[in-house]
Design a protein that fits this description.
Elements (H helix, E strand, L loop, with lengths): L5 E3 L4 E3 L7 H26 L9 E5 L4 H13 L4 E6 L14 H11 L7 E5 L7 H16 L5 E7 L3 H12 L4 E7 L13 H19 L5
Parallel strand pairs: 3-4, 3-6, 4-5, 6-7
Antiparallel strand pairs: 1-2
Helix pairs in contact: 4-5, 5-6
């Protein structure tokens, strides 16, 4: 029998020699990986928190955004040359027995009106209840509404929250382009400094989960 190969327990177990990295080998691997890790840490938040606005006639606002982000969308509308603001959203997942609003689209629209936004420039486009693909579902609802409205528009900007923005932009582009150009505007989270996202557990969770979700949509299942 080969001295480097042994069996035991009626040949149910076997022993084989195994090559492993030495301390020097581990040091080399870590040295090569360190630059990639540094680039990821320094760039991933900025990559996901996309700011790529275009000249657009319509501003599409995700209705699930926090109130301060909704207020930010109002300011963005007045800064741009928009003709219409669309709020989107699936049915509320809590409070429907207490609220007169049944969807995030309706709730966001009502919030904007309370903040002084002109109702004649505002449309709430609600999407059906789904267990997954919520962003995709709202993008399809916007596409269908625009098709029925017969508006003369060439582009939209989607307004989303922080690191969720790039995934939203990707899905809206896949649903609306090439018929319409799609830009993106992120409302930056006030909960953490962007250049130190890795220093807080909440922002680490958000960045890592959105990184995984974006890669999943981009390369595996774009309907997510």
């Amino acid at each position: 029998m080969n001295a480097l190969y042994q069996t035991a327990l009626w040949d149910l177990l076997e022993y084989k020699p195994l090559w492993t990295l030495t301390l020097k080998g581990w040091f080399m691997v870590l040295s090569l990986a360190a630059p990639a890790i540094a680039v990821f840490i320094m760039g991933i938040q900025r990559f996901l928190c996309l700011a790529k606005p275009i000249a657009a006639e319509v501003l599409v606002v995700e209705g699930w955004l926090r109130d301060e982000a909704i207020a930010g969308a109002l300011q963005e509308f007045h800064r741009g040359s928009y003709q219409l603001l669309i709020t989107t959203g699936v049915p509320l997942n809590r409070g429907i027995y207490l609220s007169e609003y049944q969807t995030f689209a309706e709730l966001a629209a009502a919030t904007l009106i309370r903040l002084g936004f002109a109702p004649d420039k505002l449309v709430a486009v609600s999407a059906p209840k789904v267990l997954r693909d919520r962003t995709l579902t709202t993008a399809i609802a916007v596409r269908d509404w625009l098709g029925q409205a017969n508006l003369e528009i060439r582009g939209i900007n989607v307004y989303s929250f922080d690191v969720h923005t790039r995934r939203t932009w990707l899905l809206y582009r896949r649903v609306l382009e090439p018929r319409l150009r799609v830009g993106a505007i992120a409302y930056h989270s006030p909960d953490y400094p962007p250049h130190r996202w890795w220093a807080q557990s909440g922002s680490v969770r958000d960045v890592m989960s959105e990184t995984i979700a974006y890669l999943y949509v981009k390369f595996i299942n774009w309907r997510a």
